[in-house]
Structure formats: structure tokens, C-alpha cells
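Hi V.,

You were right to ask for the full record rather than a summary. Here it is.
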Amino acid sequence: MKLKKNILCSISLIAAGFAIAETTPPPAKVLLITGGCCHDYDAQKDIIKNGLEKRLNIEVTQIHSSDKSTKPPLPNHGNPDYAVGYDLIIHDECAADISDPEVIQGIINPHQNGIPGINLHCAMHSYRFGNFKKPVVPEAVNAAWFNYLGLQSFSHGPNEPISIRFSNANHPANAGLEDWNTDKEELYHVVQIMPKTTVLAHGTQKVRSKGDTEKVEEHPIVWTHEYGPKNVRIWSTSLGHFNETVADGRYLDMITNGVVWTLNRDDLRKKQP
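Predicted structure:
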């Protein structure tokens, strides 16, 4: 009799295990690309990976180069299959002088074909050429990266605090986020906003001129974009120069919301202690 009960208990546990396995979705596969000029990517790549994996049921794979030039030799450049097997690509590279249209298009192709994207900080100042200091014509060859991002920028302000104000409270990517002020950071200046872009937050920064007069600069700092004929979801923030910002829980929560929104999968969130 006792043996029979043990067998029944074992069967019940196995059945429960199968039930959990069937109802628990597999982790999303995320590719994080880091490297290039002007930032501590050696540290930031792990801050972002660990911060997102702590908050979400995802597996983050890294493509990284410790090269500090404006032409980092990232292995995805020239590799048409670099995004195969991934659900989401996070661009956090700083590659301002990679200007070959064929290479740039190869980086964009997976997004045109349906893979969502997230773009952080210096990704906005990458893959640019021609007269990118003026508003590009969307049909121009040098507009490809800006068309993907949904916004064009080429410069930033001084290393001073930024006040972040969320302006679209009803957007799901802003859920649970509150206005906050950074320590020293870079406010990216926006040249133009592309069609099908929704601004989620603005950043303001006090700037002193040569005459010691003070003015306030304001620019979009977080936005979403529906890219290409498939309206692929793209989420971006120009914030994230210093390690202190990248490691801030509010910054990581913001990117977490971006991941959830781009993948349209709120079930990825982990319950936090």
C-alpha cells in the first residue's frame, strides 16, 4: 500500500513538472552589441546584460569589441547571418566612422526582415556619412540608419545633469517609470524626428554660454519607432554615457520596459523580491 502511494506521488510530481514546463515560456534570445569609441563598454556590456537578465526571463549573448576607435571591428559587420536565432538585437556600439553603405545595410537587414531593435546612446551617432549635420532626405543613401532609428542626431551638450520627464504616460513602454534627474550626462541634440516615431520622454539640461549666461536645452531622449513595411518595433534612448547612469536601476528599468514593449511580451518579467 505504501509503495503504491509513493508511486502515485511520483507520478503526480512528474505530471506537475510537465505542466510547469508546458506553461513556462522559454527565455527570449537577445543579442547585445557593444564596442567602439568614447565609452567604457568593457564594463557597460556586463552591467546591461546582468541588469536585464535579473529583471527578465531572457538570455543575453554579447558581441563585443574592446577597440576604442570610431571603426570598431565588430564581427557582425559583413556577416549577413549575425542575427539568426535571436528575438531582439540591442545596439550599444559607437561606430561613427563606419560609413560603407553595404555594411550599414547589412546591419539593418535583420530589422527590416522583422527582428525588433533597441538602441542605446552612441548607437544614435553611428553609421553616418555624407552631410549628416543637416536633416537627411529619407530616400537618400545616408538616411538608412536614421530611418531605422526613427530620429536623427549628430551632437550633444556638455557633461551636466539631465532632467528626464516622461511625456506619454499611457504608453506601455512607460509603465511604472517616474521622472528623474541624472548626475552628469550627455544630452543628444535632435536634428529631426522621422515618421512613425513616438517620443516617450524629453531631457532638459542647463547649459552656460561663453558670456556666462544660462539657457535650457530640451530634446527627445526616449522614443519608439515602427520601422519599415513590417512596422517592426524599435525602442531607443540617447541616454547612457557614464557607467553611473547605465548602472542606475531607473535606467535599467527603462530598458527593461523597452525589451518588453519591442517583443510585446509582458510575460518575460520576473517577480522581483
